[in-house]
Every structure is written in C-alpha cells, then in structure tokens.
Amino acid sequence: MVIYGQVCIFMPNASGTDNYFFFNSYALVLLQWMKSQGIASSKVLENTGLSLDELQNIEQRIPESKFFELLQNARGHFGEEAFGLQFGAKITLVSHGVLGQALISSQNIGHAVEVLLKYQALLFSQAFIELKQDENEVHVDLIFSEQDKSENIDVLRHEVIFSCMVTSLRQMLAAQSFPVILHVSHNAPTWKQAYHDLFGPEVYFGADINRLTIDKSVLTLPLLFANHAMAEIFEQQCEILLAQQTKEKPYSQKVGKVLLARPGYWPNIDETAQALFTSTRSLRRHLSAEKTSFQTLLDDIRCNLAKEYLKQNQHSVSEIAMVLGYSDLSNFRRAYQRWTGETPKRKNSLAS
Q: Model-level pTM greater than 0.90?
C-alpha cells in the first residue's frame, strides 16, 4: 500500500504484463559500464532472451521485465549493493536521445523541467513526473500507474531514476553544487550511506511519496550549453517523436493512463486534456470517434478497481469508496449498483 497525501491507494497488480518500456540506449550504457568493470556482455545478457545485435537499434524499446533482468544480472556480477545509484549516475543526458539534447540546449533549469514534463512520455510508459511548487521549493514527484510487485525492482527503479535526475541536473549546471531533499517510499537499505553520499544529508525512507525537492532559485540558473536555436530544433524533433508515439495508441488508452496515474484523485476532462497536450474539445471528438466518452472511461476504471478491491477482501467498502473518490458511501453504493446491478459486498464483511 502506498499513501499519497491523505489518500490510501492499494492498486491491484496486473500479473504477467509489461507496462514499462525502456530505450535500448539505456541497456547499451549498462553493457558498456559493465565491460569497463571487466564483466562481459554475455554474462549480463544471459537468460534474458536479448542479443547484443538487437540492442544496437537505439530507437527501439525493450520491456521492463527484460530491462530489469539485465540489471539483476549485472548487479549479481558487479556485487555492489548500491548498484542502482551507481548505474543511474552513468545515464547521461545524451542517453535520452533527442530529448536529452533538448534538455542540454535549454536556457535554464526551469526551461529544461518544462521540456521534460511536456515530453516525458518519450522516456516513460506508465510513469509520470509531476512538478509542484511552493514559495521556496520545487518538488518533482515520481508516480507509477501500478504498484510494483517486487520490492527489489521498486528500489532499483527509485535509485536509477533519482540518481539519473540529480546527475543530469549537475551535468547541465557544470557540477554546480546545490542541496536536494529526497523522499522515497521504500525502506532504508543497508547501503543507505550511499544515498547520503549522492544526495546529501536529507534523505527520507518509507515516505508517503517519491519526491526530489530543490530550492526554487535553481530554476533560474543558466545552463552550460544553452542554445536557443538548437533547443527549438530539438524540441521540434521531440514533438514529431511524441506525435508518432501517441498516434500508435487510441485516445481511450491515453485517458486511462492519465486516470490510473493518481487513483483517489480523479482529474476532470479539462485536466486530462491538458495532461495529453490537447484541447478538451479535441479530446471529446477523439473519444467520440472511438465510440466512448470520458465519463464512460472513468466509470469503467472505477468499476474494475472496485471489483478488484472487493475480490482482494482486504479493505472495507468505506475504504474502497474513499480510494475511488467517493466521500459519501451511499453515492458509491448507488454508482456500483448502476455499474453492476449489484451492491458492493465483501466475502467477509468489514465494518463499512
């Protein structure tokens, strides 16, 4: 169970599916790093079903399960407990392809963050980066659409992504030093000192959210390779790649991805359209062409989640209603009966 703010989210696991995909370039970085450590590529690729030849196409992606098989193999031969932190630091901005070049060419960190938020779908399949600001700080939240089944993979994800983020920031700023605060949802590992060595003294484990916080003043710092003309060119290329990628999926799937990213807080159609970089009118038109609507998709997701939670037999009807965004239990009961023709019941009822 993961807690976002005051809302408990217990996402059901989808067994046997690959929901995250990574560019082959990251696998190549891994193989190159291992080679520099005296570990042959054949050992890292062992039993993964992947070959070095197919990884040479850096524009292709490999399933999450295969990528983490590579990481597990590499860590087993490497022998370092803080492997994920070290690997994340090896992923430079150029490893991200055109998006990395767009980030490098940005005028300042604030512009780079805007570019990352707009084109993050080029990096993540069902993970989201959200930016939140207050008077003095900027919070970069990492949200996964589904809860991880393996704690080891969960820790690896957090370590690789946050290590990569901080390393990239320092790379863009020519290693200028600035404090960061890190919150991660996993428990403190035995190598927690490595976290402090990389991120500094303020690292908090077992947190309610996965978050990297920096001082707001960092946003205005100019970048070492800032180039407005080059930034425009690379952002145009990102736009093309994003259009090609999103064209492959129907809008109903894209809406579902946005809705599942933050269950418990359900964005309305305007917010969803904004997240998909389109207008509300266009989104309605696209969904209509697919013989569905925003409300239908929202109801379907809530209905399926409700059924799964009830089947798990671990949470009261009241808890499930809260997670699905119903502050009034009677409203949830009526909605569930409208969806299924039945009232929401558990096998062994908890107090509702």
A: no
